[in-house]
Amino acid sequence: MVLFGTRPEAIKMAPLVIALKNDSRFETLVTLTAQHREILDQVLEIFSIKSDYDLNLMKPGQTLSYITASILEDLKPILERENPDMILVHGDTTTAFASALSAFYEQIPIGHVEAGLRTKNKYSPFPEEMNRTLIGQMADLDFSPTAGNRDNLLLEDIPVANIVITGNTVIDALLMTVKKDYRFETPVLNTIDYHNRRVILLTSHRRENLGEPMENIFSAIRELVLTNPDIEVVFPMHPNPLIAEKALPLLEELDRVHILAPLDYAEISNLMGRTYLVLTDSGGIQEEAPALGKPVVVLRHETERPEAVAAGTVVMGGVDKSHILAVTQNLLDNPAAYDAMAHAVNPYGDGKASFRICDAIASYFKNKLI
User: Locate the UDP-N-acetylglucosamine 2-epimerase domain: which residues (predicted)?
Assistant: First the structure.
């Protein structure tokens, strides 16, 4: 049984669901929590995935406690009824943590996709760092994207036999989605001159950046636009009103800043493929953009993806306005620095992670039967 509930999980689990359903060794069920709803459904439609169960728990103003308690309560009878041989959860969401905890209570084996990422700061990202760490302790199989992720788990006394290095399924999803002849559903994206403008994709939504850090980010973007006449910024804005409160006063009046509603996965992936540079506080984009040869400035103090920093595919911009400006302007002014990042080798895989995970699961059960 594959469980997920947010858009990022759906994107990264979609190629695995497809691989599992096309593999005669498995009978696969999909259960949604709908921690996100509309944006989750968009991803399911893109990848033609239908759910077997849907907890449909999203509500306005939902809290972490509500999500956790609702999943524990609503998932229990489903797990009792189906009694799956293994559940698969992804990453660091509250859906993943609560689903893993529910399976643990039922003594059902747990497979953790994208295991072993760490910042070593339990409050950043919050609550994701602790969610991911706790799932790692409960999991029977940990699918680590990189050797560094595996080493993090070994330091936490996870048995080496439980860990499989797979690459990241997000690359699988990305390579299935980006197309040269793609036409955007959002009209303005078809009018941008991607050849003669240096287009920057901006995303900013993390809880720990709300308030002054986000104001610093948007103030830096404003200055970059005003001092670089050839750049154009596309900002798909998260629906959280606290983001609009900081973004609109600084960016709304600028002609070369396009503030859009959240884009579906196909649109943002294909937009990423046409941009010059990405500024983001997202985790997944740190893996996706380098696969398309796009340098990434990370708008956070820490990243749970240090392999990307070491590989030179991302650079830490932080949340201080002057530092964001300095790092980004260097990439705009220094072709050698830009080319070094654009041509660095992405450490997150070759687009075949889902097949490696399928083989590892089959091997796990084969060994249990011997």
Answer: 19-361
